[in-house]
Every structure is written in C-alpha cells, then in structure tokens.
Write a structure and sequence with these properties.
The protein is of the alpha/beta class and 307 residues long. Helix content is 33%, strand content 18%. It has two domains: 80 residues, Ubiquitin-associated (UBA) domain (Helicase, Ruva Protein, domain 3, Orthogonal Bundle), CATH 1.10.8.10; 190 residues, Rossmann fold (3-Layer(aba) Sandwich), CATH 3.40.50. The protein contains ten helices and nine strands.
C-alpha cells in the first residue's frame, strides 16, 4: 500500500492569486509535489486537459480556482491521498469514484477479479455475491465484464453503498442489487450464488501500517477487524456454505502473510480445490475454494499451499 508523502507546508505567497497555469505548476513542484500530481490537481480544479495545460499555460487562475487549488494542495502536502482529493481512482481500466467513506482501489485487488472471471467462465447467467463491497469495485467490475450475471453487493456502511450505487450508475452496471448487511445477515435464507467474493478487513489491530501512509486517511473499519486480522475471513468462510450453489466458489483477498491461514480456514470448512493466487508483487493475495458438489471447473494454483 502506497505511502503518502509528507512535505512542508506551502510557503506564504508561493501561489499568487492570479498565478498563471505555468506559475501554479512551478509553485506546486517547488513545494515538493511530483509533477504528475501537480498536473492532476490543476486539471481537477480547472477542468482543462493535460494538453490544454500546456497550450494555455499563460492563462491565469480565477479566484475560485486559486482557492480550491490552494486547499487541495495543502491537503496533499499534509499527506492526504490523491484519490480522495480528485475523487477518483482507476480500477480494471474503469474510473471509480471514491471518498473517505471507502477504501482506495488498489491494483492488487484486480487479482480477485481475474480469479472470479476464470471460475465463472462457462457458467450462464451466474449469480454473484460481493461481500463488503465498499466503492463497488468488485461488484461493478464483474457486472460490467459479465453483463449476463446477477450480482448482489452488500456492505454494512450506508455511505459505502451510496458510493457503490453511484459507480454502478456511472459505469452502466444495471445488473446489481445492493443490500445493507453485516456480511450475510440480511440475505434471504434461500439465496444461493455461483460465486462469492470479498475484500474484507484483514489488517491486524495495532499494525503500524494503520498509522502511516494512505491508510491514515482511509476508513479504519474497512481496514482492520480490530483483532488478529483473521476474524472477518473466518466469518465469511463459515457462512459461505449456506449461500453457495453446489460447486460454487468462494474467493477472498487477504494479507500477504495470511495465505496459509486462509487456506486452512477453507479446508476446515470443507472446501475443495483450495488455491491461492499471487499479486503483482509476488505475494499471496487471494485464496479460495469450491463448495462440494457439482463440477470442479477451474482449479487455481496452490503456490505456497500445504498438501
């Protein structure tokens, strides 16, 4: 997870009220902001494209733009993540709206999407459940990639569900049913799915990462279970059998050092074909298994798993 920078505050007068676009970019980079981030903030405030920032570089900021830019700049210099400042982050090639009510999408989570799509291949109109959807990146991406799917997305946070609904609407994913729920609690008892996927809180309480970098600004309840980091994973595994079709799959993102524990939870609950996928950095990141019955379907690699 990327650390946010921590720069000194902007010197007084470094960003004049009628600064041109060129002067504004120079002031931000001199304050320590990377040029890319400086351009992103300026584009966000002015609505101009990157090309227009170059071709109109002598254009001055108006008073409103100056005030908004200065506010965003100082928030970034204090370490606040860029995604929250511009209100957007790309995931699986699509722009997702984000706010401090939800986690910032990260490339490693795309591993869960790839694993899910592989296990849904060949299944017509699958029913899919995303537990703890947050901004909706998993549910919306799967709904867009598989428009024939019937996707359900749950979260205990009304603010997160509002964000997920907004992303679904913006990206044309109209095949999602959103439900406020503490994991499985609000699901109909008869609801069954071909695949359940989740990126739950898995950081242990007291982990120093929670007080550093971007994580300082993200919703703590979406990061940690306030325990050993495994309790929510265990809850998801324990309840999955009651909501999976025969031969259905459960997939869970987890910490880089939790692969072995996740596989053991799955095996102890009776799952077959237990596997773990590695992320872009080579770390164990997504584990899953197949509920007994039906066809085995795709079997994932078991890198680092026990026999």
């Amino acid at each position: 997870m990327t650390d946010s920078p921590s720069f000194a505050s902007l010197p007084p007068g470094a960003l004049p009220v009628q600064a041109t676009l060129r002067e504004a970019l120079a002031a931000m980079t001199q304050a320590g902001l990377p040029a890319l981030e400086a351009r992103m903030l300026l584009t966000h405030v002015t609505g101009l494209s990157r090309t227009q920032l170059i071709t109109r570089d002598t254009q001055p900021l108006d008073a409103g733009q100056h005030g908004r830019l200065l506010t965003l700049l100082n928030r970034r210099l204090a370490g606040e993540p860029m995604a929250y400042l511009v209100g957007e982050r790309e995931f699986y090639g699509r722009p997702f709206r984000v706010s401090p009510a939800v986690l910032i999408p990260r490339p490693d989570t795309e591993i869960a999407v790839q694993a899910a799509l592989a296990r849904l291949a060949g299944t017509q109109a699958p029913r899919v459940l995303d537990l703890g959807t947050g901004s909706g990146i998993l549910a919306v991406t799967l709904a867009c990639e598989r428009p024939d799917a019937q996707v359900w997305a749950t979260d205990i946070s009304p603010a997160a569900l509002d964000m997920a609904r907004a992303n679904a609407a913006a990206l044309g994913a109209d095949n999602i049913r959103f439900l406020e729920s503490d994991w499985y609690a609000a699901l109909p008892t008869e609801a069954r799915f071909a695949l359940i996927v989740s990126n739950p809180p898995y950081i242990a309480a007291g982990d120093p990462h929670l007080s550093s970098g971007d994580l300082r600004f993200e919703p703590v309840d979406a990061l940690t279970d306030h325990g050993d980091g495994l309790s929510d994973l265990a809850t998801i595994v324990a309840g999955a059998g009651a909501h999976l079709e025969e031969g259905g799959w459960l997939l869970m993102e987890h910490g880089f050092d939790q692969g072995g524990a996740a596989r053991q939870l799955l095996r102890d609950a009776g799952f077959a074909d237990v596997f773990t996928e590695r992320d872009l950095g080579g770390n164990e990141r997504c584990s899953g298994g197949r509920w007994p019955g039906g066809k085995a379907g795709v079997q994932g690699p078991t890198a680092g798993s026990e026999p």
